[in-house]
Amino acid sequence: MIMPVDKPIALVLSGGGIRAMAFHVGVLRYLAELEALEHVTRISSVSGGSLIMGLVLKCNNYRWPTSKEYLGEVYGRLQSDLCRRSMQWGAARQLLRPTNWRFLLSRANLLAGALRREWGIAANLSDLPASPEWSINGTTAENGRRFRFKHSGFGDYQYGYVQSGDFPLANALAVSAAFPGGFGPLSLKTEQFAWMKRPWDAPAGSEERVSLNHRILHLYDGGVYDNLGLESVFDAGRGRSKYPDHFIVVSDAGKPLSDGLAPGQLNPFRFTRVLDIMSDQSHALRVRTFIHYVQGDSERGSLLSMDDKSSTLDGDARSTAVNFPTTLRKLTKNDFDQLTRHGYNVARLRLADGTPS
Length: 357
Hints:
This protein has helices at 17-33, 48-58, 67-84, 87-93, 108-118, 169-176, 223-226, 269-295, 315-322, 333-352, and strands at residues 9-13, 40-45, 133-140, 146-149, 153-156, 160-163, 186-189, 195-197, 208-210, 216-221, 234-235, 240-241, 247-252, 301-305. It is of the alpha/beta class.
């Protein structure tokens, strides 16, 4: 199908660590070549998708880039930062400061520090552009709901929302990438904020102050709840878009479930295997629902999957991409080129019936 040029775009960026970040960079490059970045009005992201979006904005002085700016300046800056700085080691280096030892069990706070120090992400949520409206998605451990950060505020529908004020963007990005067992949660002290809530069917402006039962909220990776980052723009339960006038572009760099089982009945990796299966099934259900929605009308959206098995794509490039580790280590230039080229080619194939370069 050919992406319509007269519709606003809702851009969805999945998780997947540094692999996802580079894949999304390639997808954005193709959109920029179509001069389509100017049509992006909504963005929803989790994990690696959130990190790369934060870096895109930082590289353009916290303004959404035009297609020309992305191709001319931002793309090169992204390559430099992704190949020069390791967020994984940057977070570890935060422990060299004794004042950070208190974050050993909530290591997302360390990642936030690394994002400020290594990438220079020093803005607050309120500094973000109002358009495109960007939803940075996390997961509230206490209630299992999607916790979202936006230009105007943050929270979830059960506990309520607060105004963004001077809340650091780096902290929001760290929440979105705080995968359990990797970085762990970011701890949010609830008494520091004024939480407001209204009934779901009440009009805007009817919010009332509420008190939370939890002194601290533990905020995890948005991928725990939805590793596609799709829910902000698409209602999977009803199988329909929340913004029917938008063309939804889903950039999915999730790693497919591997084949095999760790040996040994008491092997702890067998437990993580069960979690991987559960996550894979949740992901598959969202993908199937979205594909069914798009099949009803090709101008509704498109899924750009890293695991696209089209015979017109380079099979070796696909294999390299899907098997690339889910880490936050820096890339080599060759890794960057391979992953971004694969993202570019998948986007070109699915958005314009093009042939891979």
